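#struct-pred

JT: dropping the chains for the assembly here, can someone run the whole complex?
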Amino acid sequence: MNKAYSSKGLIVITGAGQRVGLYCASALLQQGYQLLVSYRKLTAGITALQQAGAHCVAADFTELESMAAFIKALAPYPAIRAIIHNASSWQADLPMQQELTAQSLPEQLQQDAQVFDAMQQIHARAPYLLNRALLPKLLASPNGADIIHLTDFVASVGSSKHQAYAASKAALENLTLSLARQLAPDIKVNAIAPALLMFNESDDEAYRKKALAKSLLAIEPGPDEVLQSILYLLNSKYITGRVLAVDGGRHLKLP
Ligand SMILES: NC(=O)c1ccc[n+]([C@@H]2O[C@H](COP(=O)([O-])OP(=O)(O)OC[C@H]3O[C@@H](n4cnc5c(N)ncnc54)[C@H](OP(=O)(O)O)[C@@H]3O)[C@@H](O)[C@H]2O)c1
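RK: done, full complex below.
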């Protein structure tokens, strides 16, 4: 563990093993912040973060014991400058069955409930529990503190194939409002709602073309857009309870 004092303070990022979380953690570390991050799979990115001085803690936020261990790992740190809730799982809804029978109904309900509960656990329950448990350390931050929730463009418009995911991100946006009200003026609480940031390796050309065409700016912007949004919110003295849209004007790409 790196306990070296950093005048910029400690930033906690959840789900920093890859992509956006990893990019932001590496950049914030380079900028002089102390970093404590969570990961599930031990990736090459986590090994690199560890070597660069970040404190990396394995945690699965669907399990309360694992969450408790993550919170305990923060015990040596007196204060938290910011917590960035990035951990996510983009799970699709299951296909609808045409006709439910007395036999298939219980199984269908159980499978749908599993998807719905998993989405709520990772995107709404985990931030809710972590924010509450870590509140004293956020309040102890000498120059103010930030809570930043990574939500999604679909939280405001819904999604036909990722309904449980979209509903859980909408819940997180609502928590942003409640916490901002509760914690002002000591802690600013904001959300960042991206539309497409990065494709997955498995996305084929047809999918990529269709996804790019959904926004006015029609690019795959990459994780730096989230980093710049985080820095903007960290440096602001007057923004709280807001959802920062990072969506290439997707809200105006109307049929
Ligand atoms: N990428 C985009 O285009 C896009 C668009 C809109 C919004 N967003 C939002 O931006 C954020 C970053 O996106 P991303 O694409 O970089 O996400 P990602 O690649 O899916 O990474 C999310 C991280 O969360 C971790 N995670 C998943 N389930 C977890 C659990 N139960 N407990 C603890 N950690 C868990 C994953 O760890 P493992 O890999 O080890 O499971 C992974 O490292 C997310 O909140 C996402 O919803 C992204």
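JT: nice. The longest helix spans residues 104-139. The mean pLDDT is 96.
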